[in-house]
Write a structure and sequence with these properties.
The protein has about 375 residues and is α/β, with parallel strands linked by helices. It is built from 15 helices and 15 strands. The model has no long low-confidence stretch (mean pLDDT about 95).
């Protein structure tokens, strides 16, 4: 069937939502669905599926970070006209309340729309949407949230009308990591992947690592507003490699090559895709004990209290030196990643799109 996926964030810029939308679009096409992706675009590699460029993005403050949102109204109108010409039988809107693209598609089309909510943490501005967001929500033919914390955030905004929103966890592209051979390293290696901002907890990890008394290396992947400050503070540690932003292929190689992924976020994570990616790569995971990470990892990660430098240092020391403990986490992680593969997610959503389209045509649904 013809299905259009709409993402309000630039697919040129790495991010959890963008990665999910791109992976899902590719998996759906692999299942034989006719897919169109509509999203902002800031240059670089084009998505590997039919794509409509909804204009460049601007950094919009959101959830203690900045989201690359497409706010060009003229480009949004052009994209929506292309969407209409495609004639989808179902729409899949990611973050349906985000202007201008997702919200424009929700309000400007009559195609049955499934909305997926990724955000965890509502904030004052988001909660202030109140009654108007409730009206927007009722326009959706169906709704999913990527985790319990994402659904709880939605309920805070629109009320009990969203309490029955189905939880459909994110998916991971297993084949990306099965193909990777592993980045070379000279000894036990931990890796951090994420934006360098306070809520991601990189400062906590660097403080823990600075006092680590076992032989180890740390790869720090990503950039952000705290990069300069953190490099000035910890740049003298020769064990740390500041990798900057890397492409998908190198990221997969680094995850496969590392022994441990560390995800020390302080909060505001609705799911934690990087945990699943590390598990698919056969890498043990240490993560903060926060709602989104517990839901993503299940029993397959070593959880440490958020912000606990000493606890994180102890977990690092153990898993970088204790091969049996690390192997047990790797085995549990591979099983968890298999449960949440992108192909399984695409199959689940494809069935949902068909049910929405059948109901819209007046058939049994």
């Amino acid at each position: 069937m013809r299905v259009a996926l709409v993402c309000p964030y630039s697919v040129s810029i790495p991010g959890g939502v963008q990665g999910q939308v791109l992976g899902l679009a590719s998996a759906l096409a692999g299942l034989g669905e006719e897919v169109l992706l509509v999203a902002p675009y800031d240059g670089g590699n084009l998505p590997g599926v039919p794509f409509v460029d909804a204009g460049s993005s601007s950094g919009l403050p959101a959830n203690r970070s900045r989201a690359p949102v497409g706010l060009d109204l003229a480009a949004t109108r052009r994209a929506l006209r292309e969407l209409e010409r495609f004639g989808p039988e179902a729409l899949h809107l990611h973050e349906p309340f985000v202007p201008a693209l997702s919200l424009g598609a929700l309000l400007g089309t009559r195609v049955p729309a499934l909305g997926t909510f990724h955000r965890s943490g509502s904030g004052i501005a988001y909660r202030a949407l109140g009654l108007v967001a409730r009206r927007w929500f009722r326009r959706l033919a169906g709704a999913t949230a990527v985790s319990g914390s994402a659904r709880a955030t939605l309920v805070k905004v629109v009320g009990k009308v969203a309490a029955g929103c189905e939880i459909v966890p994110n998916g991971v592209e297993l084949d990306r990591f099965e193909r990777a051979r592993g980045w070379p390293t000279s000894g036990p290696t931990a890796v951090f992947v994420g934006r360098h901002e306070r809520r991601k907890g990189l400062e906590v990890l660097l403080s823990a690592f600075s006092g680590l008394r076992v032989p180890a290396r740390l790869w720090v992947i990503g950039t952000g507003p705290e990069t300069g400050t953190l490099r000035a503070r910890h740049g003298g540690d020769a064990r740390i490699e500041w990798c900057g932003r890397v492409g998908d292929a190198e990221l997969a190689e680094r995850l496969v090559g590392a022994d441990v992924l560390v995800a020390p976020a302080l909060g505001g994570e609705s799911f934690g895709m990087v945990l699943l990616e590390a598990m698919a790569a056969g890498t043990a995971v240490i993560a903060s004990d926060i709602d989104g990470y517990r839901e993503a990892a299940g029993p397959a990660a070593r959880l440490v209290r958020a912000g606990d430098v000493e606890g994180l240092r102890g977990a690092l020391a153990e898993l970088l030196t204790d091969a049996p403990s690390r192997a047990a986490l790797v085995a549990a992680g591979r099983a968890r990643a298999s449960e949440l593969s992108m192909r399984r997610l695409a199959e689940r959503y494809a069935a949902g799109y068909r049910a929405l389209a059948t109901t819209a045509r007046g058939g049994p649904g």
